[in-house]
Structures are given as C-alpha cells and as structure tokens.
User: Fold this.
Amino acid sequence: MKKFAVILAGCGVYDGAEIHEATLSMWAIMKQGATYEVFAPGKPQMHVVNHLTGEEMPESRNVLVESARIARGKIYPLSTYDPSGFDALLLPGGFGVAKNLCNFALKGAEMSVDPEVEKALRSTAAAGKPIGALCISPVLLSKVFGDVRITVGQDPSSVEAVEKMGSRHVRTTHGDVVMDERHKLFTTPCYMLDANIVQIGEGAENIVKAILDSLH
Amino acid sequence: MKKFAVILAGCGVYDGAEIHEATLSMWAIMKQGATYEVFAPGKPQMHVVNHLTGEEMPESRNVLVESARIARGKIYPLSTYDPSGFDALLLPGGFGVAKNLCNFALKGAEMSVDPEVEKALRSTAAAGKPIGALCISPVLLSKVFGDVRITVGQDPSSVEAVEKMGSRHVRTTHGDVVMDERHKLFTTPCYMLDANIVQIGEGAENIVKAILDSLH
Assistant:
C-alpha cells in the first residue's frame, strides 16, 4: 500500500491549512487505496485570523496543535519526517502555507522557507520521490527548486512571483494537474481559482491519481 | 436547486464540529446538485481542547467564529436561521455537538439543548422539512422529538441514553442511514464508529442522497 506524508500549516484558510483541501486530500488518498500520515511544524502561527470578520485576533496558536484538529489528533512534528517511510509527499494549501511554512504572504518572490519544510522537500526530492502541492503551496517548490514547471492557477501576482523565482508557470483551470517530470513535482490550483468544494475534491483526486500513476 | 442549511458546532472533533464530517457533508450536498448555507450559534465554546494532547487549554473561543474556519468565512449566526429559505437541515457531528449545541457530554440523557438549536430543529420539523444528523448529532433529535427512530451507531452508553430519552435505536454500521418517516429524520453513524475518512464520505453521501430522494 502506497503511503503519503501530508504537511499541514494550521487549521483554517486565512491563517492555516485550507480545511477543504486538507480533508479532501486525505479522502482522495484513502479513496484510491493508499494511506497517509500527517505532519506539521511545531511553532507559533504567524498570526490568528477571525474567519468571521477577517480581522487579526490578539492571541497565539501553534501550527502543529491547530493542524491536529484536521488530523483528529493523529499527527507528528514535521521535524520527525523521514522520506524513507513514505512514497510521496503532499501539501494542501491555505494562507497558512504562505504565512507559516514560508513568508510568501509578506515577501512574495523574496520569500524564505521554514527550515523544516525546506528539509522535508529537499530530502523527498533527493530520495527520488514525488511531491504534490495544491493551491498556493507550489510557491514552496518554486523557491526551493527554482527552475520547475508548476501552476498556481491564474492569479497574476502569484504567477509573476513564481516566474521571478525562476519557475515556468502553466496557466490552469479547475482540476488540472501540472507535472514536472524531472523533479517529480505535481501541482493543481484548487482555491487559487474561484472554486467550489466539488472542484476542490476533483483537484485532490486528480493530483493524488497523477502521483500514484507515477509510482507504477 | 435544493438548498440545505448546515449547522456547525465549532472546528475540531474534540471541542467543535468534526472537520471531516462537516467538509464531506458540504461536498456531498454540492456533488449531488444541491447547495448549502452554513450556520452556527454565536456563543463561547464549552471549552477548548488541545487536539495534539487531548488536554483542555486555558482560553476561550467562539462557536460561530471557529465554525467560520470550516465555512471559509461564509457563515451566519444560527439566530438568523429561517427554515422557509431551505429544503432541509443537516447537522454534522463532533464533540462540539455534545458540548456546544447541547450538554450531552456532561449530562447524558438528562441533557438540555441550546435554545437556538432547539428552535431551528422545531421550526424545520414544523415546516414539514427533513432533518439529517450525523455521528452524535442524533441525540439532539432524541431530546427534542422524543419518540423517534434514529441511530448513533453501536456505542452502548450512547444507545442507552437515546433509549432513555424515549427514542427507538437502530444499530448500524458504516454508511447506513436510518429514516424516521413520521418526523422526516435521517441519521447515520460516521465517527460514532471506528471509521476511516472514506467511510465518512460514504455516510455523508448516503444521508444527503436519502434526504434529497425524500424531497422528490
């Protein structure tokens, strides 16, 4: 049975992992006969956003502790991730990716990547294993691997940023999966487009299928 | 297009709405050609649980504000719910149901129901519209409507509690949906069983399908 590692960035679209993308990624993995374990970095979120008002809240939450809500408690610190135990790595999106796994939300193309996240990405690639990234997560691949073929959908400023980081952007719509064969990278836009939850499910199913197909 | 109202109880299995059940309910509604709006009561959660350790955290969170994470900000106070705008009402599970929508987690069969939740249930039933409840949510139907035919899966103490509240319990397994024709109630066990996320998706699809079929 093929096994995915899934990296979460908190719990909630505006300051953490996008919940529909995370849930439907785990669902898509298991639906296609594979299994998964969930990881997140054990560090404070960049901030906490009230998802009703969009305003910042004067409190502090931990990325690992909040990600555990999506994982129902079954989650591990990203520092313990070892690609030898997995067949593939998958990163759902959400602003938490751009705020907690890197600082793309603040710095754009000048961003830096969380050291644990960078190590996870580099060690997975070095082991010759595929990496999938949904929504805004492909910016991580762009920063770490540079000249890669990816998609972040159609948003002009995000497209400009990944091109500035040396990547070749492919414009996509709902459910499309872009593959970089050389680096074994798979990307799909999900909520980088104005999508509904069924389209998110299709994106998750398609990227997981493409990754599983590449393993045969 | 048929329209569901979905009531959430926070964001996270141990103190709020169960995230997989909530997400896959919304997905199942839209997948079957219907649409939804999301509601939650604007009040403090009973408590906040660290989902990594299972321990209570010394902070306060609001049910509506946290539910907004699952709804991506598109959510309304339960006080504004009016069944005339909807074809059916759906309640995903999670301990938040037993802690924030009622106090079943503390009181068992002696529980009381949040007044806004009770009003939503009674007004929907009075309008002759169906109500679906996943996981532990059927205890609400048991308390409010009494002599109803429902399932909470197989857990002995939960079964005993709903029987004590005057309901007829049907023992079920993954994906089963129990219908009470007289009250137009639909229930399915989901994570009241030791289920995986694909089985949660099947439970959500089946209960939404049964409700939609009943509308034809």
Observations:
- The first strand of chain B starts at residue 3 and ends at 7.
- The mean pLDDT of chain B is 98.
- Chain B touches chain A through 34 residues (CB under 8 Å).
